[in-house]
From TrEMBL, chain A:
Protein name: Molybdopterin dehydrogenase
GO molecular function annotations of the record: FAD binding; oxidoreductase activity
Residues of the FAD-binding PCMH-type domain: 1-222
InterPro entries, sorted: CO_DH_flav_C (IPR005107), CO_DH_flav_C_dom_sf (IPR036683), Diverse_Substr_Oxidored (IPR051312), FAD-bd_PCMH (IPR016166), FAD-bd_PCMH-like_sf (IPR036318), FAD-bd_PCMH_sub1 (IPR016167), FAD-bd_PCMH_sub2 (IPR016169), Mopterin_DH_FAD-bd (IPR002346)
The keyword Transport belongs to this UniProt entry's keyword annotation: no
Species per Swiss-Prot/TrEMBL record: Micromonospora arborensis
PANTHER family in the cross-refs: OXIDOREDUCTASE (PTHR42659:SF1), XANTHINE DEHYDROGENASE SUBUNIT C-RELATED (PTHR42659)
Oxidoreductase recorded as keyword: yes
Domain of life: Bacteria
Automatic annotation (TrEMBL), chain B:
Name by which UniProt lists this protein: Xanthine dehydrogenase
Family matches, as Pfam families: Ald_Xan_dh_C, MoCoBD_1, MoCoBD_2
Organism: Micromonospora arborensis
SUPFAM superfamilies in the cross-refs: CO dehydrogenase molybdoprotein N-domain-like (SSF54665), Molybdenum cofactor-binding domain (SSF56003)
Sequence ranges assigned to domain Aldehyde oxidase/xanthine dehydrogenase a/b hammerhead in this UniProt record: 20-124
GO terms, molecular function: iron ion binding; oxidoreductase activity
Region (Disordered), start-end ranges: 522-545
Amino acid sequence: MRAFRYHRPADVADAVAVLGAEPQAAYLGGGTNLVDLMKLGVQRPDLLVDVTGLPLDSVEELPDGGLRVGATVRNSDLAAHPVVRRDYPVLARALLAAASGQLRNMATTGGNLLQRTRCVYFQDTGKACNKRAPGSGCAALHGQNRDLAVLDWSEQCVATHPSDLAVALAALDTVVEVHETDGTRDIPITALYRSPGAHPERETTLARGALITAIRLPPLPAARRSTYLKVRDRASFAFAVGSVAAVLDLDGGVVRDVRLAYGAVAHRPWRAYRAEAELRGRMFSPELAGRAADVELAEARPLRHNGFKVPLTRAITVRVLSELASS
Amino acid sequence: MSTGAVGRAYPRLEGREKVTGTARYAVEYPVDGVTYGWAVPSAVVRGRITRVDTAEALASPGVLAVLHHGNAPRLAPGPQPEVWLLQEPAVHYRGQFVAVVVATSLEAAREGARLVRIDYDTGPHSTVLAADHPGLYRPDKVNPNYPTDTAEGDFDAGYAAAPVRVDATYRTPAYHNNPMEPHATTAHWRDGRLLVHDSTQGASLVRATLAELFEVPPESVRVIAEHVGGGFGSKGYAKASVVLAALAARHVDRPVRLALTRQQLFGPVGYRTPIIQRVRLAADADGRLTAICHDAISQTSTIREFAEQTAVYTRSMYAAPHRRTTHRLVRLDVPTPFWMRAPGECPGAYALESAMDELATAVGIDPVELRIRNDAQVDPDQGRPFTSRNLVACLRDGAQRFGWADRDPTPRARRDGRWLIGTGVAGSSYPARARPSSATATARPDGSFLVRINATDIGTGARTAMWQVAADALGVPPERVEIRIGDSDLPTAAVAGGSMGTASWSWAVIRAGQALREKLRDLPGDEPSGEVTVEVSTDDEVGGQPTLPRYAYGAQFVEVRVDADTGEVRLNRMLGVFAAGRIVNPTTARSQLVGGMTMGLSMALHEEGLLDERYGDWVNHDLATYHITVCPDVESIEAYWLDEQDDELNPAGVKGIGEIGIVGAAAAVANAVHHATGVRIRELPIRVDKLVGLSALA
C-alpha cells in the first residue's frame, strides 16, 4: 500500500486549505471505508487529513425545531440521541440497520454520506470500472449485478449508493453544510449526489477540497411517524438489497404529507417524488401505496440479475406505509 | 478408564490464552530480522507469462526481492501441482500465484506487489460448469477412493414401474471455506534446516510435502501449528502460503512471514465445486423406496483431478432394490476444488434429503416416517450390517424434542401475521474412519505424565480431548497429564480432517498409555528414578482393521419463517440429534455440532461464490459480499446426542463429530421453506430474489 502522510488540522479552515493545496489528499473520518479501499489500492491518497479531532462532534437543537448534527458525530451516538429517537425515528432506525456495532462506533456522519459504492468491480483493481478508472469500462453492466441499480443507471456505471443513513436523510429534506476554500455553502442532500451519466467518477456536487461540517434536519413534526425498513441477504451486517425511508402524515385517513426515499436502487439515495405526488391528497390504502410505488418504479430498467428489486421495493413501500398508517 | 475424564465437560486447555490474545498463530511469532512476503496472483485465466518486469517493484522503498518463475529456487515436482509454484511460465487459472514480493514491512511488500509488471500470452478459457458441457467425462474414481459409478438391480425398469416418482435437479454454487485465520506461514531456513510456523490441519503432512518439494530429508523440516484458526478442509494439505514463504525465505536468506489475503482465499486454496445433481426416487404406495438414482456433475481443474464424491452418500443411506449412482466431471480453467466441510456427504445429502421430502409430499407420508420406513440395517452398498446405525433413534428423539407430532403436512398452512411458518426434517450420516498415528507417553519422577502426538487443534478442542483420553489411558486424574500437540517433531499423526482426528489420535494415545502402564508395572522397585517413555504406532492395528460400514448418523429439524411480501427467511429454531459413538467432551462436542449446523444453514440461505466468466474468478471475494450466517439469522440452535456404544470402531469408541453437523442441515432448511411457502427452491442459496412476492401468489 502507498506510503502516506498524516495531518491533524488545527481547525476547519486549515483542513480545507491543506486539502485544497494537496491534489492527492483525502479526509479521514472513521476510516471504516477509506482504509479498506487504501489497502485494496482503490484509493491511493498521499496525505490523510484527520478531521475527527475538529470540534464537529455535537448535536444541537435549533431554534426552529430542527436539529444540526456535526459531521464527526459517530453513527452510534446519533442513533442513540434522544431527540433523534423521538423526532426522527426513521433516522435512528436507518443508522441501526447499517453495518455492525463496532463499525457504527467508528463511522462518522459526514463520512457515512461520502462512502463509496460496494460494487465488487469498483473494489477490485483487476477489473474494469469507470468510477475507479475512468474510461476502463463498466464490468458490472453485463457481469454479476444482482446488488446494483435498477433506476437511473448509465452504460458507464450501474453502481448503487450503499448508505442507509443517506436514504433517511433524503426523505427528511436534510441540508448538508459544507465548508469550501472560499466560504460555506448549504446543499440539499438530494442535490449532493449525482447521477452516474458519462462521469460516474464524479459522485457528488462537492468542490475539490470541500468539507462537510454538519447536516441540518429541518423541523418536521410529521417525522415522529416515520420509519426505515431494510431488506438484506442476512439478518444483520449486510448492505441493503432494498430499503425504504418513509414519513407519513394522515388527516382523517387522507394523506396530508408523505416523504419517501429508496435505497439500493440507484447511484444515489432515491427520493420518490412521483410516488409522493401520487399519494398526497388521497385517502390512504395499501392499494394506493402499491400504485404509488408502481408510478415511481415505472422507469426501472432491471439488469440481468436484479429484476427482483422492483417487486421487492414495491412490497416494502406498501408494507412501510401501511404500518405507518395504522400506527 | 477408571477415572473417567472422557465424557466429562472441560473447558479448552488453551481457552484463556485464546480469549486474552496471547495464543500465537502462524504469523504472530516474534522472529528476529523477519521480512514480509506478499503473493502476486495472475491477472489472466489461461496463458503464459512472457515477461516479468521487476524494476519498479525493486526500486520501491523496503522491497528486498521479487521471486517469480525465472528466479525462484527450484522445487521437485510432486503430486500436488497447486503448490509447485513459481516454477513455470504457464498460468492455469486466474489467481494462480505467479510472484512473491519480499520487503521489510507488510505495507512495502503490498506496494511492491502492485508494481510488478507481468505480460502474458493468453488463450480462450472455460470456467463455467454446465450439465451439457462438451468436456464432461467419467473419472476413474471419486474421492478419496470410491468407485465412480455403482448399479444394483435395474434402475430404469424399477423406476418406470413404480406408482410414485420424483425426478428433481438440485444446484449448488461454489462455496469457499473461509477460516477466520487465513492460510499463513512464517518460514525460516537455518543451516539447511527449515522451520515453519504454519496454519495447517496437519503438520506431519506439511513436513512431508516440504521435504519432497525442497528435496531435503524430512528430519530437516519442522512444522509447528500450535494454534490454528480454522480450516474446514482447506488446510488439509500444504498450501500456497507455506510453499511461497519457504521459497522466499530461502531466496532472501531471512525469515519470511506470508499470509494470504481474504480475497486470495477464494480459489487458490481450494473451494467446494459447484454441483448439478439429479435425483430420481421411486416408491410404492406405502412409501417404500423401489428405485434410487443419483447423478452428480461437478468440476475440476486442468492441473489435477479432484472428484467430489457427491453421490456416495446415497449408496448407503436408504435401501431399495434398484439403485444407481454416477459422477461426471469437467476440467475447467479454474483452481482445483478441494475438501470443504464434509466433501461429498454435505452436497449429496442436500440433494437426496430434499428429494426424500419431495417424495414424502408425493406419496402423502410424513417425512420422518418415510425415512424410518426406508431405514437399512445392512449397508445397501457393501452388503454387510452397519456396525451401528441409529438413524431411526435420532429421528424419533429429534421429533419428540422438536414437537414434530401432529404436524399439518399442508404447505403454507401456518401463518403468524406477515410470516409464513414451516418445518422441515432431514437425515444425516458421515463415515467413521481412522488413520494410523503414533504417540509417546512419558512417566516423570514427580508422578506427572507427558503425552506427545502431532495432533492438530484447529479450534475444535482436540488438545483438550486428547488430554482427557490420555488421563484415562494412564489411569490418573487429568491434572497430572501434560499433552503436547501441533509440532511435526512430535510423533507423526493423522491430519485433522475427515472427522477422523479424535478416532485416529485417541487410538495411539490409548495404546501409548496402556504400554506405559505395562512397562511401569514390569519395572523393578516401586518408583522409577528417571523418566520412562514408550512410543507406539497404530500402523498395524489400524491397517489390519476389517473393512466394515461404520457411520455416524443424525436427524436435523428446522422451523423457518418466511416474510410473505419480501421473501426474507429466518430460522425460529434448528435442532439436531446425533449418534456418533462416544462423546469425549460435551462442551467442545456441542460447539462442533452447532458449528456444523450453522454452516448448513449458511449454505442453505447465504453462501454463494459468484463467478464472472469473463474474468474467470469469483467477484464477491470478501466477507462483506460473500455472506455467512450471523447470529440473528437463527433464534435457537440445539444439538443433542444419543448414548451409543460401538465396539467395532476404535479403542475410544468415537465416530467423529467434525462434519456430521452440516450434513442434511441445508436440506432441512429447504424442506422447511417449502412447507412454509409451497415453493420448492432447488437452487441454493434460498434468498429474497427467489421468494419475493409470495403474498401475490396467495
